[in-house]
Amino acid sequence: MNLLVGLLIGLKEIRAHKFRSFLTMLGVILGVASLLSMFGLTAGMTKGMRDTLKSVGGVEQVRVVQKEVSQDLLPLRDVSPGRTLVDAMAIKKGSVLISHVSPEVNLGGATVSRGAHTARIPVVGATEDFLTVNIHEVAAGRFLSALDGERAQRVAVIGREVVRELWPEDPESNPLGQTVLINGRPFTVVGIFNFYEREADRRRREIARSEGRTPSKSTRDGWGMYRRKNQTVAIPLRTLFVEFKSGVLGPQNEDQGPDHRLTDLVLKVGDTDRFEEALSQVANILNFTHRGIDDFGFDTREDWFDRIESSARAARISGGLIASISLLVGGIGITNIMLASISERVREIGVRRAVGARQRDIFAQILVESTVIGFIGGLLGLAFSVVLLRLLVMISPAENAPFVEPGAVLISFGFAVVVGVVSGIYPAWRASTLDPIQALRYE
Amino acid sequence: MPLVSLQNVHKIYRIADQEIRALDGVSFELEAGEFAAITGPSGSGKSTLMHLLGCLDTPTTGRIVLDGIDVSQADSDRLSHIRNRKIGFVFQSFNLLPRLNVLQNVELPMIYSGVSARERHQRAAEAVELVGLSDRVQNRPLQLSGGQCQRVAIARALVNHPPILLADEPTGNLDSKTGADILALFHDLNRQGRTIILVTHDAQIAAHARFQIEIHDGRAATRRTPHPVS
Question: Cα distance from B109 to chain A (closest Cα, Å)?
Fold first, then answer.
């Protein structure tokens, strides 16, 4: 008996019991659909996170971070000055592989006000490279210049969200030349940053505008990282040092003198192909400026991507496990029905054996039948998952919209076929080992 | 050389500690073209003998040779092959597959002997014609009468041209008129040169055969009928 004949027998059997076969397949259908939807969801989530990450700085961005020193260096910890402007200058001068250096100081919880309007917004002291390294763009006016820094000018470039909070009567205006108070000191607004938002939000907003509606609040605010970016208030780094860090009080209100430490030191690697080389170059320079104390580390976007990747993998595995269990249950359903249909067909098996079917012919016949159920169930499952994914696309945030990778389709479908094969093995074995004499006598 | 030859065949079943000698030294020979009947009361070992002749089982000891092949110690696959090529089964309850139509039922043995689809159709149609059911090829067994079902079963038994036709109570489920028709069909087939072995408990039916094999307590006695009913 060749495979084609077996296939035809299997198909005939399934056609003869359409409803029963459909019910049997249902487990596989739902299993495949949930497996594929789950793959789609995690893929969509990963993609959404990646896109967001890209918009706040690509892979070429490296953050020099503070690190706990090792135990044996602990007594020498204070020998190192920590991250200061000296580091920034040394890197700029010493490392040819680093194209941009952005030393930053955050004035956490600063009060920014205009007249009666006050906002608690972090203020960042920045240099010219801030724009490039952090992927900012100026929509109106200009960015901070080297001259602003040299003269410690009281100028500020502010984000759209800041404008909205301080000029609620005219949130979309560009209040260039106007004055805001930062911790009570007057600063002139010289530039406005772009409004940053997710691609999907931008589209939604434009649609809302073209239809003459006011966009919903959540659409205007943006979310998470975008929101924070829109709240930026940048002033010249030197101005920040002069105005706010020149005489810092200690815990007992004693004068500690000026505070030189940076809260952030962000670098942009010129050539990502020489990423590792650039990092070791920077490490060498910082070893020198930090007097040999290893109290710094690098936080790369690569690490972020890795983190996203590993959390996505965890989600995929746990979700996949749950979906697989439903597929397994579907497989048990197939086994069950096949066993039932065999006990219905004992006599048929006896007749087939009597006219010359070998044990392996019977085995193949049953196995083909369960495989066909798995196969068709898998196909229907794929079809069903199209519907399911449409539904999920509708309810999930646009940039996390689930999408299906070809690999996921292959895995889900392949798994369904494997389940079909495996769940047929035991019934096929039972059927093929029936004694033909007993089977022929069976009532 | 005889078509069928049994030499001192024993079949012993062990149920718990009990030894049941279903066949206890059976020997006989059957020439090609013979019309034979195996008779005996139930429990005599008649069915066991039929299963051995039909290659559904192997003897505990002794030798069975069918058409020159020693089947005494054959394994399951070999037995399947011999059943496929050498034996045509006709059962009391027809044993047609209810979901297949007449033609497909008749094709069944050929599926397991690797005959191409085209040839299967052709040979099945010929066999159906031989038993006089050419106008019912598309019918399902449930749409046929008992006699028609048995004719289909006979067509199925003939389709692979086996040397032996083994019929187990072929008229048991039929009324006497239809039964007589079926027996007449067997006679026709025998006249065309086919070897027929009837298994029956009915002496009247056995009387149709020229060669009588009577089983009693696992032993066989053979006898020729000079003038069989026909």
Answer: 5
